[in-house]
Amino acid sequence: MDTTARPGRPPRMSRDKIAATAIEILADEGYAKLSMRRLADRLGTSPMGIYYYFESKHELLGYLFSRHDGVADYRRSRTADDPYDRVVQAAETLVRFLEAQPWALAGIVDGHVEIEEFTRRHLRDLADGVRDLGLRGADATEALRGVWRIVIGAAVLGSAPESGRAGAGSPVPCAETIECFLAGRLARAAATAAE
């Protein structure tokens, strides 16, 4: 049997194949090492072959986050009815997702991924829960920012190799912190409304 490669057109490229290779580079080498040229070299094509599918690195990163709508895969139970519990549950889900997808966490922390893009795709449950708590305007914005900071902190600490937690599936330690934070935000909003 002849196992030599046949001359002619190289194997077909696809957006998913490019995305999978980009995630490998991000996970192994970090965002600074991801370039269209490096990606093309890894795939055995020219940079123009990559640009046929993605206009820019920014578009590629946006695709990675839209393709990886896997936050739902990290939910442990059905969505809670109580908005307070729903916010905590959504935050815990985000922590699990970011711990399991270090390329996503690194991109957010290092500023390579726009928070707005991630927020639009993955924070809807969190935003809906905050709104259902009765927080509006600046109170809702500050509550979301605070919970998001707790999520990022928990994910960074949980994904650190010395934490011993990465990939272990152990409980996310941010629930109590988020509960206390939300209680404070709700009390502040009630006090402001009473004035």
From TrEMBL:
Residues 12-72 form the HTH tetR-type domain. Keywords: DNA-binding, Transcription, Transcription regulation. GO terms for molecular function: DNA-binding transcription factor activity; transcription cis-regulatory region binding. Pfam families: TetR_N. The keyword Transcription regulation applies. The keyword Acetylation does not apply. InterPro entries: Homeodomain-like_sf (IPR009057), HTH-type_TetR-like_transc_reg (IPR050109), HTH_TetR (IPR001647). Residues 35-54 bind DNA. PANTHER family: HTH-TYPE TRANSCRIPTIONAL REGULATOR RUTR, TRANSCRIPTIONAL REGULATORY PROTEIN. This is Mycofactocin system transcriptional regulator.
